[in-house]
Amino acid sequence: MIQKRSIKNATKWAMYLLHFVTISTVCGQSTAISYLSGTDKDHTVDWDFMVSSGANSGTWSKIPVPSNWETKGFGTYHYGWKEDFEKNEIGYYKHTFVSDAHWKNKTVKLVFEGAMTDTEVKVNGTSAGPMHQGSFYRFKYDITKLLKSSGENLLEVTVRKISSDTSVNRAERMSDFWVFGGIFRPVYLEIVPESHIEWTAIDAKADGSFLINVYTEGDQKNQTVEAQIKTMDGEKVGAPFRMPLEKDAEKTSLRTQVESPDLWSPEFPNRYQVELKLLDAKQNVVHTKTEKFGFRTVELKRGVGFFVNGVKVMFKGVNRHSAWPTSGRTMSKEISIMDVNLMKDMNMNAVRMSHYPPDGHFLEVCDSLGLFVIDELTGWQKKYDTAVGRKLLKEMVTKDVNHPSIVIWANGNEGGNNHELVEDYAKYDPQNRIVIHPWNIFNGTDTQHYKGYDCCDGSLYNGKEVFFPTEFLHGLFDGGHGAGLNDHWNKMMANPLSAGGFLWVFADEGVVRLDQGGRIDTDGNHAPDGILGPYREKEGSFYTIKEIWSPVYIDHEKLPTHFDGDLEIENRYLYTNLNTVQFEWKLSTFPSPYAQDTIGTVLDEGSISGPDLQPKQRGTIKIPFDQHKKVKADLLTLKATDVHGRELYTWTWPLKSVKTINEQWINEPRPQAKARVTETERDVTLTAGDLAISFDKSSGLIHQVKSGDQQIPFSNGPQPAIGKADFVSMEHTTKGDSVFVEIQYKDALKRVKYKLAPSGLLTLDYAYYHDTGGSGNAFDYLGINFDFPEELVTGVKYMGRGPYRVWKNRMKGNNYGVWHKKYNNTVTGESWEYPEFKGYYRNFNWVVIENTIKPFAIYSESDDLFLRLYTPPGPQAAENNHNSPPFPAGDISFLNGISAIGTKFDAATNHGPEGQPNKIGPEWIEGKLVFDFVGKYP
């Protein structure tokens, strides 16, 4: 009994403490927040709702807030430029909330973080204020006088999907992105003292100078603002400083100086906080407000470059929509953290908001994890009119001004730029950050979009302005992004006026269509243009970008024959010494093609710190492996990890030739049987044990393969990938226990020789060339082809670089190893089972073709051979062939050259040397393959 009473009393005491804390929050001096909606897509509150037209219209029901109503089964889905402005959907919301006695003598503001698009608000039947127009902006109403002193209050909100302001529709709705309706960001009450700090604007420079403009509301008589800078841990930095409020002054400015502050940058996102106190005449605290910020200086030096903290910056950036498949524009902090981490995992240092200001939590994560940000006023090729634009600009800047991550304001996009608004940014931003017009040459910058590698006389690469394309290498389907980036980046790195650029776009903007059985809709070819899928599935370009933009740059495609551990290395950081980077290395062997797993044995490993190299310096890193173990090893792996524990990149290099590696598997003991040859009118058949391989006497091509009782339909090769080979003759001989076949052709195939050994291994020795005019001949691909029915294939196990396919202009990003892949028929951007199965694979060693009949293996003796597995289907929504490169005939190919892939707007040839066709001279190209149709593969 005593124990129960103690528990009951403890519960009462805990409830009292909670109530006391709540009262202190409201009755004390800080701002209190009371949510009327949920806080994000995963934490919502149901409100009463009805939509005027479309799905589930005309009847009151419930809807979670925040949300876009389409994603909850209401209204009609629209992709921007297909908007029908005559069919405006109107959403009606109702919600009740209870007044709190502690609100007495307080100011209560009703805050909307974002609603699409025209929003009218009533509280207890009375209008809260003017209708708000514009989707992506925080707006608020003082509803103090509309609230009941006690009891329930009725909140009614009418949201029109289409604005009555034609310029809002032009800027926001007639756009190249999904347009939605509804209250899509949180709604809450902000309870403050009658006299309070409304907002602040900070300018904290790299030299430690600190300015804060404090904007107050209410009676300012005899009041003072006091500020105290603190670390994020709460430790005071310097002494407090204060300034009295001037009567009726719009703002009060406070200044101080901090000695040697830790600076903010993407590499070291150091932040501070400033605690503000509004004091009355008796020095009592009226209101407190705390803001986070970072010390850093941003400067555009015209004709020189873009500088942050005195360091010339190269933006390694991407554009990002605030989008999630099941919730539209309604996001969460968890998604923000995931997205920023994915960007930093790609070694990006910058992100552009496309094409509207994001949720506050996204900017907070950019601040804390470290990304440069371009924050953008909406205006997709059409601009806001000046009156409404000025209101929305102010709402954007006053909300976002203190984020150290924001280094540039973008005043609309691609011609949607109202020049009359440019000077307004400085009214609210004491840092006077540069304002750009993306797609234009403006204000000392050149940000033109989607220009080719050799473009632009007098501008961009050949201009006088600092240039950083705010969109380049449009990544539609599997093109762009990583494809072409190596060429563009090398050219940017070599140009003193380059400040980098921003890829289009971070993720496919796919929406789950509840009206179409739950399929993900990217509106044809309008929105499947991400590096990642809608749920952040990684495409191959993810890893290409990661390698190219690694701040630790190692440009060793191959290791020298007598590699002693020395690797040339370059520091491509902006602010970081490479001695802060930790390197882990290991020597290992490869597993057998017969093994169940894909992991070899580690022979030696260790870790070392990076060399003392400042940014832009080159040097050497020494890997201290055991030379005796190195001789036995097949692979060197080197992983770089930054000071924050994030992997920068992992490089892999084979330590032996393909021929040497494969010989250990080819020469394994096998059952022996004397090879024989027989002829019929149609075929020449080679046999060894229960293996029989037949060649068509009229063409010399493999006709059929039989292993025991199983017919393996591997056939119709080798055929040249380019050109034709006219059959001349076929001869066979027996030498010892092996059989040899030599086939003569005219034109493309110059040598085709087979050897069937007693082990059942069939060796093909071939050579080809294309005599079509001598040197300078250009071809999309080069090599030989075979057929094997795609419908029989279940997967592959292979050794080479993987697990992603490559293109001629997207070679980087894959690691050398043994990979296992199940068959899929993925069309990048239209389905999202990654890595894709079909395509080209680099540095092919061996492959086991898994199928429903009998797995078989093919080995190479060439170090730089490509394996081709079938032809990826072209995207159904494609409007051109830029993203569907040419492929050879047949099903399985062994190639010395492969095709490149283009972007949404351009062929691959427009984006650098790597995008050009393969050029060869008159010399022969030789190869050797070994086929194993007998072995027992897993």
From TrEMBL:
Its EC number is 3.2.1.23. GO terms for cellular component: beta-galactosidase complex. InterPro entries: Bact_Beta-galactosidase, Beta-gal/glucu_dom_sf, Gal_mutarotase_sf_dom, Galactose-bd-like_sf, GH, GH-type_carb-bd, Glyco_hydro_2, Glyco_hydro_2_cat. It comes from the Bacteria. Coiled coil: none annotated. It catalyses: Hydrolysis of terminal non-reducing beta-D-galactose residues in beta-D-galactosides. Residues 200-296 form the Glycoside hydrolase family 2 immunoglobulin-like beta-sandwich domain. One of its GO terms (molecular function) is beta-galactosidase activity. Keywords: Calcium, Glycosidase, Hydrolase. Residues 567-640 form the Beta-galactosidase domain. Residues 304-433 form the Glycoside hydrolase family 2 catalytic domain. Monomer. Belongs to the glycosyl hydrolase 2 family. This is beta-galactosidase. It comes from Sphingobacterium gobiense.
